[in-house]
Design goal:
The protein is of the alpha+beta class and about 90 residues long. The protein contains two helices and six strands. The longest helix has 13 residues.
């Protein structure tokens, strides 16, 4: 582990950052089965009213369901509404 990574982890522990943020992974917040916020992704690969696929630093994040609507789309943050049926990750 590099010195920078060690300092980053130690600072994150002191400031109580979640490890996924320190590792540049996505932060996913789910509100029941009808809402989700995804932060720290890289790109939107696919969006339809039944599926969204996002590129993340670790690979692809796929969310499947029904009646999807993007309420907010920012450079690194999405707020998704609709019935969430499945969430899966694909490395690479």
């Amino acid at each position: 582990m590099t010195v920078f990574k060690k300092l980053q982890r130690q600072a994150g522990e002191v400031l109580e950052f979640p490890s996924d943020i320190l590792d540049s992974g996505p932060k996913i917040t789910i509100m029941g089965r009808s809402g989700m916020t995804i932060e720290y992704f890289r790109d939107v690969i696919l969006f339809s009213n039944q599926e969204i696929i996002l590129k993340t630093p670790q690979g692809k994040l796929s969310i499947k369901g029904k009646n999807f609507v993007l309420n907010t789309v920012l450079e690194t943050e999405i707020h998704l509404q609709g019935q969430i049926d499945q969430i899966s990750f694909e490395e690479g």
